[in-house]
Amino acid sequence: MALTEIAYAKINLALHVRRRREDGYHELETVFAFLDDGDRLTASPASRDVLHISGEFGGVLDDPFGNIVAQALTRLPHVPGWSVRLDKRLPVAAGLGGGSADAGAVFRMVERWSGLPADWHEIAAALGADVPACVESRTCIGRGTGTELEPLPSDLAGTPVLLVNPRVPLATGPVFKAWDGLDRGALPQGDARAIALAGRNDLEEPAIRLCPVIADVLTSLRATNPVLARMSGSGATCFALYDTLEDRDKALKEMKSDWWTMAARLR
Fold it and tell me: Which residue out of 10, 39, 87, 88 is catalytically annotated?
């Protein structure tokens, strides 16, 4: 029996960085949301675990043993071994939680196969700060390093969304390091839409300093009159929310042809 899962692309509707911690991490408040599209994973029984990577961005992942999917397989109980095929459709180092989303898909496949261990959240958090949210792949608030999750019923489900990446990878570490350390305040109160509209991404400015083309992407998206346009995570991907599919699809046609794009809806 083969299992298939979509590794749903993650966006941060808002991302407030509150302080640098002594352990080197940062204290965050964020709203995670997920698209109904992303990478694709298929798993089938095998004599041992093996990972096959393909897709537009598969060539970037040149170390299958270091891949987070392989790490998730190692740490989760599943019998027998699995042969996993990863169709890498999301850009890497892009602020979309691509690797974390892939790991989250593995957790969901294990859950369907035999159930998750009681300490699955701790296992997920050890793999990466975004992994617990990506296992759930539902709108929620993340606190701490992003692993302390609080459900947030979404009034944005079904909203048309456009992702745009200038095809420039941007590592998370340097962006956080470039943050100016100023606490600009907590997440606002309200539903997902209200928080998104009143919130911000504190990593936008440092990311733009490191990767100026992000500003061009945001300018192009904001020119299409979206409900909201913002950078996701630590970049370089930006997103825009629209009232209608027609508005989103019109905006898609106005993006530069050499930029990566994905048109979808929020889950």
Answer: 10
256 is catalytic: no
Calculate what percentage of the chain has a pLDDT beyond 90. 94
Q: Is 130 a catalytic residue?
A: yes
34-58 pLDDT, tens per residue?
A: 999 999 999 999 999 999 999 999 9
Average of per-residue pLDDT across 6-15:
98
3-state secondary structure the chain: CCEEEEEEEEEEEEEEEEEECCCCCEEEEEEEEEEEEEEEEEEEEECCCEEEEECCCHHHCCCCCCCHHHHHHHHCCCCCEEEEEEECCCCCCCCCCHHHHHHHHHHHHHHHHCCCCCCHHHHHHHHCCCHHHHHHCCCEEEEECCCEEEECCCCCCCCEEEEEECCCCCCHHHHHHHCCCCCCCCCCCCCHHHHHHHCCECCHHHHHHHCCHHHHHHHHHHCCCCCEEEECCCCCCEEEECCCHHHHHHHHHCCCCCCEEEEEEEC
Higher pLDDT, 222 or 62: 222
Catalytic residue among 39, 102, 130, 202: 130
Predicted local confidence at residue 64, as pLDDT? 59
Q: Model-level pTM greater than 0.70?
A: yes
